[in-house]
Amino acid sequence: MKRLFPLAIALTLFTACGDDDQGPSGPVIDENGNLNIIASDSIIIGSSQILNDINVNGAITITESSTIGNNLNINEGGRVYIQMNTPTDTLWVDGDMNINHQLEIRNGTVLLTGNLNNNSDGQVLIADALYIGGDVNNNNILTQSADTLSIEGTLNNNSGGYIYSTSVIEVGKDLNNNDIFEISGGTLSVGGDMNNNGGANFSTNNTTFIRGNLMNSGTISGCNLINVEGENNACSGLEE
C-alpha cells in the first residue's frame, strides 16, 4: 500500500501505514517503508523517521533532527539540503549515501554509519559536521568549507575526483588519491598511509599528520606542511 503526501508541506514522523487517501502528487512512502521523492517535488521535511531508504529525484530540505533507517539515494536531478533550524539538530543515516546529483550540508550535524559514495555526476558541499562510519568513495566534486569531516574508514579520491577543503578532515585508515586533492588551511589527519597517484596540494597554514607512510607516484606540493610518522616518506628531502 502507498501513502501520498501533498506537495511543499512540512513532513513530520513518517512510517509505513495502511490505506489512506491518495493525493495527485507528492512524496510516496511505499509498503517497504521507503520515501520516494518524485522529480517535480520540492518539499521541506521536519522531524521524521524513515523506516528504510529515501530515494530523491526532486528536491528536499531537512530542517529538524531525523532518522533514515537505511540508505539516502540522491538520483540524477535530485537535490538534498541539510538546513537544520538549530546547530544541535542531527540527521542520522543508518546506511550509505549514494549521490548522483547534489548534497549540501549547510547547518546541523550528519551522522552516517555506512559509506559515502559520490558518483561521477555527484556534488557534495560540506559547511557543517559530517561523521562517516565507513569509507568515502569520491568520483566527482567534494568541497568542505567549515567544521569537521570525520571518516572512520578509508578516503578514496578516485579518477575524476576533486576534493578541496579549508577546514578539518580526519581519516581513520588510508587516504588514496588518484586525481586532485587540495587542502588550504585547516588540518588533515590520516590514521594509516597516504598513497598519492595524482596531484596533492597542501597550501599555507595547513597542518597534515600522516600516522603511516606517504607513498607517491604523482605530484605533491607543500611537503614542508606534512608530518609523516611512518618509515616511508615521499617528501623526505623535499620539505623546503
Word description of this protein:
The protein is mainly beta. 0% of the residues lie in helices and 47% in strands. The protein has no helices and 33 strands. It has a twelve-stranded mixed sheet, with no helix packed on it. The radius of gyration is 20 Å and the shape is elongated.
What structural category characterises the helix and strand content? mainly beta
Q: Report the biggest beta sheet as strand number plus sense, adding barrel if it closes.
A: 12 strands, mixed
Strand order of the largest sheet: 1-3-4-7-10-13-16-19-22-25-28-31
State Rg: 20 Å
Q: What would you call the shape?
A: elongated
Compute the average pLDDT: 89
Total helices: the number is: 0
The low-pLDDT segments are 1-24
The N- to C-terminal Cα distance equals: 66 Å
Q: In percent terms, what proportion of residues is strand? A: over 45%
Number of DSSP E strands: 33
Q: Percent of residues in helical segments?
A: under 10%
